[in-house]
């Protein structure tokens, strides 16, 4: 359809203002008469509210409105509605909101918080998944049976918020074969904080009987629908608009503080601004969850994986949130990468009295890839096979089955491994090492996918020859909205990308969208935008064919003109055609909608899953070389290489930027970023002083190779490229450190004390006694049986 | 009475409480929202401004200490509407992603480039340790600084 190529290194239009400090993010927005809000948060992990009296606070200077659980009747969640806006009678985590206040100044609002009279009677606490799964453990949600089930099929019970299972083939038979080795591995990872630079922030107004919420989010439609549900109003009463967002990484893929501001705006009749403090962000940020993982495989001496079994425990914190959905991912992250015979997996979201966890770039995949790749190296070591040879023989290829019985198309991972070999071989030979450090290298593979889901787009053709793209997409920094989408529209209409205006998200103006995340923007919003632009193109070509007196099929659109193919300079400008069309028939516009049709799983293979199989698989191969200081335990990364499957690279330079950034964020996860929880239930890392993210001195340039041509249903053959770069980093570093030290790496991050303990054999082998030895004993309900 | 200071060449007066962090005075009194209060601990550098020519996290400076000082924020660095050399290089290198850290990055790198035109790659990395970026992995930023240094 397109005459002009959509592939280019188009620079960002939003850069100049960002560099001048002119861009107005949500935290920069001030409205006349605006009030400032603050939220009272619990300072115990578990308790019963015996008294809540706001009358004294209401008399404090400047206070205009106070809201509590009584103002927000609804419950939200994914799969099950277990989450109220404010703690309602019961506190389930340290930091849980109890009340919110709007006042003339922020200082007044904060002072008034201290005047709320609240008494809390302590209740028993479960802070770890081991505690939560113990016999007779106190229940975080004693009334879990009464919650509304939003999606049927997941097993639940006690502190198990959700359980998703996969069973394909007979694992017991595979494990009983006489010709196999049984390899068992256990892993544990901590929580990771997104540290998006813009905290979650909102300015809400109540206008003409409707809420208007300006917010820093990745999911405007989720904010609209979830806010309405919590407040008990029709979703049509909520309008959400989104200014430029100062970083997301999944943190802003869920409802946050928007309903507090909305309620206070309605109660006060004034606009209300609410911005999380950095400490609130650090303590309640919807972290990447901590997880405990056990994998067992039955592998023949020749390297065939005939059976695999795994148990994954995902800590969802006090409410199910995103983890309920993410239990689905284990099937594709632990069951991906390699051809498997029989397989059975259980992935469980576990309630604890800790801050809720959420989505974070390549959620679930980052730690399961770490576990799978370390396990793979342990398999290779056991059967005496080179780990690269083992991978090359076993990676998923054309017509191979995934864990859920999905049939993969095309050989992708194999050729990507070959390409990595070539990159590695072409690198300069490392200098001779005589500094006493231990050196190691590893290559790790990873399988991820693009969330597809519904998206909508409208393209309005303007009489001046520009086009306006209207979607619910948000620019969170990745460039998808500022580069990829205008390139797609421009390529279809023969315009310069600068002539495609990108409208900021507004749920009153654009159709439904799942949100910006999961690598889906270029795919889903891109497909909808392409379709909308194609409708505009068809309409313009029809009008132009009358003006130029040529058949539409003989015309091309390029460089702002509609011309007869092969006759540059003929025809008319697009502006002239658009003007004529507007006069004759009215303004020209086109609409587009897209969603994935879904890929079926093998019947009966999955239970409790939100999707059965993956619409757009994405693969990555990472290779790194490390040096480990035996005196300090410090790990230095000496080289890092990435071969990433991108389908088709619309903007290679933008993708390179995503890969460099994602790898560095992954190095933080692999080497030093870890959120821990104290015995009081409070997150220990409350600021930048205590949570260390990578600095300019920590990084190295990543050598990047984009692998194009793998099958994709994405527009123009694209796949999402921003999610995947972090996927394999923990795996690659862990395998390299294991190779360097000869020690069994079972936990991330590999901080100097942890590495030193490994080197000195002071790190005991990881034991996960709360994972039962028999797979079936880890289930609330046997796979496939009804509730 | 009030706190007077020179901001981007303009003589301005604030009635803020003298203990108010400078970043809040800039943003709330003067609507200069370029400086971002990200960590409020002086670690991230997103609120960096030049105070009498020295890069300083404005979250750590009480307004009273800025009294009488010459303050330059990111808004004052693009002279006559044109991006300065490091801003232009950051744009040319497509370094900007979410952009929240860039006002502070621009301040730090503008200072480095004007005071140390001989800076090396390692000098640039060291100079950026007070400016954290969560999106880019730094490489493009370092590349841009090298480009700006090499541009006559």
What does this structure look like?
The complex is a heterodimer of chains A (787) and B (152). In chain A, a hairpin with a 4-residue loop joins β18 and β19 (305-317). The mean pLDDT of chain A is 96. In chain A, strands 11, 12, 13, 18, 19, 20, 29 and 33 form an 8-stranded mixed beta sheet that branches. A 7-stranded mixed beta sheet of chain A has the order 3-8-1-17-14-15-16, sandwiched between helices. Chain A is an alpha+beta fold and 787 residues long. Chain A has 3 domains: 14-22 and 453-594, Aldehyde oxidase/xanthine dehydrogenase, molybdopterin binding domain (Aldehyde Oxidoreductase, domain 4), CATH 3.30.365; 31-123 and 197-247 and 252-284, Aldehyde Oxidoreductase, domain 3 (Alpha-Beta Complex), CATH 3.90.1170.50; 291-451 and 601-760, Aldehyde Oxidoreductase, domain 4. Chain A is built from 19 helices and 33 strands. Chain B is of the alpha+beta class and 152 residues long. Chain B folds into 2 domains: 3-76, Ubiquitin-like (UB roll) (Roll), CATH 3.10.20.30; 85-150, Orthogonal Bundle (DNA polymerase, domain 1), CATH 1.10.150. Chain B is built from 5 helices and 5 strands; from the N terminus they run ββαβββαααα. Chain B has helices spanning 22-29, 85-92, 102-115, 121-127, 139-150, and strands at residues 3-7, 10-14, 48-51, 54-57, 70-72. Chain B has a 5-stranded mixed beta sheet with strand order 2-1-5-3-4, with helices on both faces. In chain B, a hairpin with a 2-residue loop joins β1 (3-7) and β2. In chain B, α2 (85-92) crosses α5 (139-150). Chain B starts with a strand and ends with a helix. The interface between A and B is large, with 55 and 54 residues.
């Amino acid at each position: 359809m397109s005459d002009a190529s959509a592939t280019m290194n188009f620079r960002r239009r939003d850069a100049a203002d960002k560099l001048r400090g002119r861009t107005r993010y949500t935290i920069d927005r001030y409205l006349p008469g605006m009030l400032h809000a603050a939220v009272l948060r619990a300072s115990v992990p578990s308790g019963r509210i015996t008294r809540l009296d706001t009358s004294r606070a209401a008399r404090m200077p400047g206070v205009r409105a106070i809201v509590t659980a009584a103002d927000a009747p609804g419950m939200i969640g994914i799969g099950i509605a277990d989450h109220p806006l404010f703690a309602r009678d019961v506190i389930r985590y340290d930091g849980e909101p109890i009340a919110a206040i709007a006042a003339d100044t922020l200082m007044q609002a904060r002072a008034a918080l201290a005047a709320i009279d609240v008494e809390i009677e302590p209740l028993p606490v479960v802070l770890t998944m081991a505690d939560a799964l113990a016999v007779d453990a106190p229940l975080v949600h004693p009334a879990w049976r009464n919650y509304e089930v939003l999606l049927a099929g997941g097993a639940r019970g006690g502190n198990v918020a959700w359980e998703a299972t996969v069973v394909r083939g007979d694992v017991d038979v595979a494990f009983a074969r006489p010709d196999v080795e049984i390899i068992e591995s256990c892993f544990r990872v901590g929580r990771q904080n997104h540290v998006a630079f813009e905290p979650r922030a909102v300015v809400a107004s109540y206008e003409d009987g409707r809420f208007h919420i300006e917010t820093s989010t990745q999911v405007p439609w989720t904010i609209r629908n979830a806010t309405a549900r919590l407040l008990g109003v029709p979703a049509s009463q909520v309008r959400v608009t989104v200014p430029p967002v100062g970083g997301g990484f999944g943190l802003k893929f869920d409802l946050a503080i928007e309903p507090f501001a909305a309620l206070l705006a309605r109660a006060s009749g004034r606009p209300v601004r609410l911005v999380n403090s950095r400490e609130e962000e650090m303590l309640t940020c919807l972290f990447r969850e901590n997880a405990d993982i056990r994998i067992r495989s039955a592998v023949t001496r020749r390297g065939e994986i005939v059976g695999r079994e795994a148990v994954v425990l995902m800590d969802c914190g006090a409410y199910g949130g995103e983890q309920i959905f993410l239990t689905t991912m284990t099937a594709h992250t632990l069951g991906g990468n390699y051809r498997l015979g029989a397989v059975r997996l259980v992935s469980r979201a576990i309630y604890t009295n800790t801050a809720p966890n959420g989505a974070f770039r390549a959620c679930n995949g980052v730690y399961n890839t770490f576990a799978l790749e370390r396990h793979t190296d342990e398999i290779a070591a056991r059967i005496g096979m080179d780990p690269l040879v083992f991978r090359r023989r076993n990676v998923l290829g054309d017509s191979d089955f995934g864990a859920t019985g999905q049939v993969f198309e095309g050989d992708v991972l194999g050729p990507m491994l070959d390409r990595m070999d070539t990159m590695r071989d072409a690198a300069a030979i490392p200098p001779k090492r005589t500094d006493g450090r231990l050196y190691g290298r590893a290559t790790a593979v990873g399988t991820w996918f693009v969330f597809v889901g519904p998206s909508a787009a409208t393209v309005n053709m303007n009489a001046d020859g520009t086009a306006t793209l209207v979607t619910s997409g948000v620019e969170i920094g990745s460039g998808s909205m500022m580069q990829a989408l205008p390139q797609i529209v421009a390529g279809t209409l023969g315009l310069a990308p600068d002539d495609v205006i990108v409208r900021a998200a507004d749920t009153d103006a654009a159709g439904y969208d799942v949100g910006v995340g999961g690598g889906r923007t270029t795919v889903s919003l891109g497909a909808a935008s392409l379709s909308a632009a194609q409708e505009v193109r068809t309409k313009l070509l029809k009008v132009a064919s009358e003006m130029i007196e040529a058949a539409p099929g003989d015309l091309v659109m390029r460089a702002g003109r509609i011309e007869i193919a092969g006759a540059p300079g003929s025809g008319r400008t697009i502006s002239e055609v658009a003007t004529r069309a507007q006069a004759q028939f009215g303004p020209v516009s086109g609409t587009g909608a897209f969603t994935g049709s879904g890929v079926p799983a093998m019947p009966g293979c999955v239970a409790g899953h939100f999707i059965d199989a993956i619409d757009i698989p994405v693969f990555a191969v990472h290779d790194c070389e490390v040096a480990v200081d035996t005196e300090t335990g410090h790990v230095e990364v000496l080289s890092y290489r990435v071969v990433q499957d991108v389908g088709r690279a619309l903007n290679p330079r933008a993708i390179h930027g995503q890969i460099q950034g994602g790898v560095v964020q992954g190095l933080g996860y692999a080497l030093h970023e870890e959120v821990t929880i104290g015995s009081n239930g409070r997150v220990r890392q409350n600021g930048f002083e205590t949570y260390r993210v990578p600095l300019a001195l920590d990084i190295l340039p990543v050598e990047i190779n984009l692998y194009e041509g793998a099958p994709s249903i994405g527009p123009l053959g694209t796949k999402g490229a921003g999610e995947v770069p972090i996927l394999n980093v923990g795996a690659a570093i862990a395998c390299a450190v294991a190779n360097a030290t000869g020690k069994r790496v079972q936990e991330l991050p590999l901080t100097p004390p942890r590495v030193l303990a490994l080197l000195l054999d002071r790190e005991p082998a990881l034991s996960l006694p709360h994972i039962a030895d028999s797979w079936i004993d880890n289930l609330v309900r046997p796979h496939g049986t009804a509730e | 009475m009030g706190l007077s200071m020179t901001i981007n060449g303009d003589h301005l007066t604030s009635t803020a409480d003298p203990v108010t962090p400078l970043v809040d005075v800039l943003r709330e009194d003067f609507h200069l929202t370029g400086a971002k209060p990200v960590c409020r601990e002086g670690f991230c550098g997103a609120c960096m401004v030049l105070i009498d020519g020295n890069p300083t996290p404005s979250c750590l400076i009480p307004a009273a200490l800025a009294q009488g000082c010459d303050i330059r924020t990111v808004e004052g660095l693009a002279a006559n509407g044109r991006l300065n050399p490091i801003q232009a290089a950051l744009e040319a290198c497509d370094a900007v992603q979410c952009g929240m850290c860039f006002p502070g990055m621009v301040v730090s790198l503008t200072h480095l480039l004007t005071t140390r035109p001989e800076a090396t790659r390692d000098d640039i990395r060291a100079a950026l340790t007070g400016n954290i970026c969560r999106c880019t992995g730094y490489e493009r930023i370092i590349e841009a600084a090298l480009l700006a240094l090499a541009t006559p």
